Fold each of these.
Amino acid sequence: MTGRLLSTVTVGRWMSPEELQKMRDTGKVVQSTTGTTHVGYPANIDAFGKQAKPGTVYIEFDVPEKSLIKTNDEWAKIVGPDSLEGRLAKRKGLPVPEMPEVANIEIKAQKTTEGIMTVCKK
């Protein structure tokens, strides 16, 4: 690290409690099974909320802006070493993308069988 502050942005993602714990433990975005982790950008609790499974939590967190690849007006992706882009970079001898560090992890909501329940901060 050069000591310079990276420009960060807030993104959101519905995830399992296990993924949240892994993110907290490692301090990094958790790579999905495909190597590409999709996030709401800008953060939006309604993004994918209807499809989120009961038991998942909606988290907002900060990542370096340069780690995002915008996919449309409401979404971005973060590519990791096991993504198509990462595997191609490795094959070509180029730098392989790493999962970025996270900051300011906040639980904003939880999905239950009754629907989405927001978390209030006191």
Note: Residues 8-118 form a domain with the ADP-ribosylation fold fold (CATH 3.20.170).
Amino acid sequence: MLEILYQDDYLIAINKPSGLLVYKSYYAGPADEYAVEKLANQIGRKVHLVHRLDRKTSGVLLFAFDKETLKLLSNQFMNREVEKKYLTILRGWTKEEETIDYELTNENEIVQNAITYYRRLQISEIDLPFLKHPTSRYSLVEAIPETGRFHQLRKHFKHILHPILGCRKYGCNKQNKLWLHTFN
């Protein structure tokens, strides 16, 4: 059962768990269930997806109950009137804050501008050796994408050499294996 965070006559917000696909997608591959269908079945009415979250991303996912509300909310996202914030743990100690302005190439090989602002909230160093280092360092950051490109945060943090912890595609697989073997 999906956790409902907010609901009124026009929209509903859920807490999407990591691992749940939002909708059927050729790029994401098959899945047993999708957030759109699962929510519609749970509440017994049709819902319209307002925005996306990656399969691995957990967080607030917004749906509209009618097409007029969908259009209004979609326009707010398109006009960047909605500020999206993400908390993530990065490998290494980042700068206190930074704007990453780094173009990304989409699946059709089209170069698109992409901008992400982040600020470091906390740093941590643990007694867990990694490669030539006697300890492992991490940063908890709040990331605010100004644009909304596919895997933007993952690609941007890899670009500045502070990949997201646990990200298999753009992260540090040696670091991921270290955590898996240490805590599994």
Note: The longest strand covers residues 115-126.
Amino acid sequence: MISQMRDQITDKIKKFSIELGFDLIKIIPAHAKPSEKRRLKKWLSLGKNADMEWMKNNSDLRADPDKILPGAKSIICLATNYFNSVEPRLHEDSVKIARYAWSKNYHKIIEKRLKYFEEFIKKLAPKAKIKRYVDTGPFLERYFASQAGLGFIGKNNCLITREFGSFVFLAEIITDLALSPDETFRRFASQSSRSSSISPSTSAAACFSSTSLPPSPSCGTCTRCIDACPTGALKPHNLDARKCISYLTIESKKPFPKSIRAKIKPWIFGCDACQNACPHNVRATPTKNPDFALAAPLRTLTLSQLRTIKTEDEFKNLLAGTSLIRAKFKGMKRNIK
């Protein structure tokens, strides 16, 4: 009886996720992952988080759901396709913005959905405890999403899904409800990453000419993302934020290092070089969700307009509701020099 009720609640949760606009959902037991905790600590100790000191805060929590929510039993992992082929007007001025920032601020959009999701779950189980995240808390979301079966983590450190490639937003709900978990993601035990038929010389079309799925859930010997990184920030499954264009143009408040400055162009906010190079993204299709359509300010904004901005308030008003305000006025001025 308990198992049947658990399955029924799980089924209702999955159906509601689709109603809310999420494209993918997987559920995994909320187990701590000591190995990932050690890997994260090593990465931090090498200073690869650059000036993002907040990443060190609560680092012990990131791989341990029970420390985030005592008594946690399940993690609901969610993904939303955000791929958009309608480009910002700015791209006509030979500058580029990362695709995730073309729409309205995704944090606000998905957080609203998660709030409705929490309310729905509490109607099913009023005593349930819940913690929700959309890239906003100390949680290894890509790792747990891969464990749940949403996809696998590529050499570019992005979660790559079978259905949409890597152009997806992730979100999670941690709960003390015991839900029915999905089958663990299998990596084709008979094929190691080295034996995969994907290679640097294989065209994207050839990779998927015989099937809509990759030969195996891995990158194989392919190094396109690493080769495409303008600044050399990538190594297989490892990122050095100190060289990453996304970090430098968004999070960093310092002048660009002289050795890297010329390599940052044409990117003025974020970077998609590693994702654009990935053959798995040949399957990326435009999102059907209107929330992720090109944001109104980016339909007409030009580089000359950006250059005429004089104050932080003017900057915020011009780009209201978009992710670009994350860079702040001074950061954007630096980026477009």
Note: Residues 2-182+194-335 form one domain.
Amino acid sequence: MTADLSQLVKAYDVRGVVPDQWDESLAELFGSAFVQVTGARAIVIGHDMRPSSPGLSRAFARGAAARGVDVTEIGLCSTDQLYYASGAFALPGAMFTASHNPAQYNGIKMCRAGAAPVGQDTGLADIRELVESWLTSGAPASDATPGTITRRDTLDDYAAHLRSLVDLTSIRPPVSHHRPSKESASRPSHLKVVVDAGNGMGGHTVPTVFAGLPLDLVPMYFELDGTFPNHEANPLEPANIVDLQKRVREEDADLGIAFDGDADRCFVVDEHGDPVSPSAITALVASRELAKHGGGTVIHNLITSWSVPEAVRENGGTPVRTRVGHSFIKAEMARTGAIFGGEHSAHYYFRDFWNADTGMLAALHVLAALGGQDGPLSQLVAAYDRYAGSGEINSTVDDQAARLAAVKTAYEGREGVSIDELDGLTVTAQDWWFNVRPSNTEPLLRLNAEARDEATMAKTRDEVLAIIRG
């Protein structure tokens, strides 16, 4: 195994191909390094459904226990279930998952007690350096009394905690989207929701979280299978929600929900099967959280729609704009005491959930919002979907800095245009804005554009793409 882990240790996690880039022996070293860097006396570990996850998780536990640390294994879980355990037990944690990446990949998401993230600037670089040194010269023996490794089931407690945060007792189907049956033409007693777990951890958590709620649940791909036989577990890609959209229309359902592989992100489609943008979900959930808390600060990254800060202000809140990335969102939430945060990538963060991201709690908010009024979901979210957006468009470039500079030069000095470089380059005018930012891992520039109407958005998008692609 190479002593250079630069391709394995990313900005926020460990991720690579098993066994080519890492294996159980390396996982054991990561376990030892994690507890040494964090100073942990006890930790909690969970894993997803990938074939390599149980073995990697056990190896990490051995490495930690060898340093005198007590380990609680919660077994199969979603990433936000691991965050729950880290928060509820006040323990550092490690989650073995590669989210939506193909089956041959696996990774580790690590956190300090209370689900505080471990990234490059908060311990991950030190963990990498320590493991690299041990690969070169060998790990020193520990004279500590080995810690214990015990099992604990947290699924019921996790579900109960989430349900304690959202009132779901009065949800009911919308009047305007009732489904007359052969037996009765009256309004149904349950919301009908199609859930696509993508053979990921949503298939493990949804049945327990949704149990007993007034829902008619139509499950899709709930079988845990880390080879992802039906589609990639990344609902951000349109091809991966085609089955969900079709099923929602076939079932005449009120909505559809899709989860990614480790079930920490949720994506929503309306009663027509049309996608609801994560920005609209951010604005919707922010409005509900502001009502619940009587105001407060809401964090949003700079790629979210203009609709988000507008909705926050309209509901008595204070919007705070940040860079893209969960470490920035969580840092700002801690600094400002924000009640909620949202990203264009469908990560949703809650103060009531240790500032961690949980797609399941966002999904419960959507169900409660829909079931608490009489209109269909398309009508409910229209209030938060006010502008025309391009979505994220990737362009492969030879020189990221040069192409970014070319875009900046093209717009500098234009009347009524402002430029900021909080994250890449954001250019804003009265009727439109766009952001171009480089990928940290690939030779790509990512463009997001938005405008007050579709024609203006298309014109802006095409103009910027012409500069980027030269």
Note: The chain has four domains: 14-153, 157-176+189-265, 278-382, 388-468.
